[in-house]
Write a structure and sequence with these properties.
Length: 431
């Protein structure tokens, strides 16, 4: 109901119903007054005709009178009966309707003729006229096409507005794509000047964000690269220093920096898909079963809810192993020894496969969730001192999942544990 297009549809439907009801009501009101006028005039005219037929009514006179009016008459009296032309006998089963203000007159439709029957003292007169005299039918013949034309007109207006507003849909899609991290998404320009401007602005905005992010990453990668040589030189120089507490401490720091740089460069490599992916058809059920023993003996332990059937995915097994290890390492790191075990489950949906890894650890505050995939982002800076992370694990996971055409989501709240959701496109979707 919140969609502009649904609202538009509702307004159009209400307009169709409202306008049609109004036209119908106007037609009915107008019909009644025109029928009354028609019946009074017709009753008078036919009474004149009957008077012209003479007393008793004479066939020859009647023929003479109605000759030019394209009317046929049947007279059924007590003393005589005649008919000017072919016309049904009153016994024929017809749907007669008696005239409201003239109870001795009734009318009906017969073949393509309009019949009017008048009862007089001298007998019954039946007149056959052209069916265009049937007012009710005439009205109906006009009303139905009119209602149809009005309905199609409003439908046409609805479709045109929908077409004009189509760029809203494109922009909406664009915003969702950007939210999902696809900064390369471009919005089509459309036809209207205002939307063209908006689309242009939107595309320009994403281009600049892309550039900003790219230069930020580039700087990080370049600085990391450059740091490798001085670090190596420090390492070598350290070897010439006498053994001391300071030397050990500097060596630990240098090693940590080297590890960090290696991770940064690895993350950058994945981000830009420098590393070639080696996709293979893998049964996730067996694949996960092989990963779990690595965590044997590590608390709080892992429970794998195995799917009943094999779950096939096309993945790079080495890269996806990194994803599983990063998530499981976090789950182990941030979960107390005595807490509930980590649960892994696999769901095979229509167009994708979902793997959920859920722990009952300390969790991540909800307001921090949007940032956990950013490189070097750590929820609690003091946490990593004990746990030894650089805040790169999840950002690497995200790059790998996106390079696979999938995605990763993290659901959590403080103290309630973390649920990592991995979404892989399944095989038919990839082919
Ligand atoms: P790190 O190497 O620091 O673990 P990650 O990118 O893997 O970096 O994670 C980013 C931050 O998210 C971590 O510093 C941690 O604070 C938080 N985090 C990740 N996984 C969990 C988890 N399972 N439970 C609690 N906090 C988590």
């Amino acid at each position: 109901m919140r969609s502009v297009f649904t609202k538009l549809l509702m307004v159009s439907l209400i307009a169709v119903i409202g306008i049609n009801l109004l036209v119908f009501a106007l037609f009915r009101a107008q019909r009644q007054s025109s029928i009354n006028a028609f019946q009074t005039t017709m009753a008078r005219y036919l009474t004149f005709l009957i008077e012209d037929f003479g007393t008793p009514p004479d066939l020859l006179k009647a023929r003479e009178t109605v000759k030019e009016a394209f009317i046929q008459v049947r007279y059924t009296g007590t003393d005589a009966s005649w008919v000017t032309d072919e016309i049904p006998s009153p016994s024929k089963r017809l749907r007669w309707s008696t005239w409201k203000d003239h109870p001795h007159i009734r009318s009906a439709l017969w073949k393509s003729r309009f019949l009017i029957e008048i009862e007089k003292e001298q007998g019954i007169f039946l007149f056959a006229l052209g069916n265009s005299f049937d007012q009710e039918n005439e009205n109906r013949r006009l009303l139905v096409p009119l209602l149809l034309i009005l309905t199609s007109l409003i439908l046409l207006i609805y479709l045109s507005i929908r077409w004009i507003l189509k760029p809203i849909k494109w922009l909406n899609q664009g915003v969702s794509e950007i939210t999902l991290g696809n900064l390369k998404h471009q919005v089509p320009a459309g036809n209207s000047a205002e939307f063209k401007e908006l689309a242009k602005g939107f595309n320009e905005m994403t281009r600049r964000i892309r550039e900003m992010l790219y230069s930020k990453e580039r700087l990080l990668v370049d600085v990391s690269h450059e740091l490798r040589s001085p670090l190596t030189r420090i390492r070598v120089a350290l070897e010439f220093l006498p053994e001391s507490h300071a030397r050990v401490s500097i060596r630990t720091d240098v090693e940590e920096m080297e590890k960090m740089i290696a991770e940064i460069l690895e993350a950058a490599k994945l981000q830009h898909r420098y590393g070639r992916q080696n996709h293979q058809e893998i049964n996730l059920k067996e694949y996960i079963k092989e990963i779990i023993p690595t965590y044997k003996g590590q608390n709080p332990g892992i429970v794998f809810h195995e799917p009943e059937t094999p779950v096939l995915c096309r993945i790079d097994p080495d890269q996806i192993k990194t994803v599983f290890h990063n998530i499981l390492n976090n789950a182990v790191k941030y979960t107390g020894v005595s807490s509930e075990p980590i649960h892994i489950s696999v769901m095979n949906e229509k167009s994708h496969v979902i793997v959920e890894i859920e722990d009952q650890g300390i969790g991540i505050p909800e307001e921090e969730l949007p940032f956990v995939f950013e490189p070097f982002y750590r929820v609690d800076k003091s946490r990593s001192k004990e746990t030894g992370g650089y805040g790169l694990g999840l950002s690497i996971c995200k790059s790998i999942m996106e390079a696979h055409g999938g995605r990763i989501e993290i659901q959590s709240s403080m103290g309630k544990g973390v649920k990592a959701i991995l979404v892989f496109p399944n095989l038919p979707a990839l082919e």
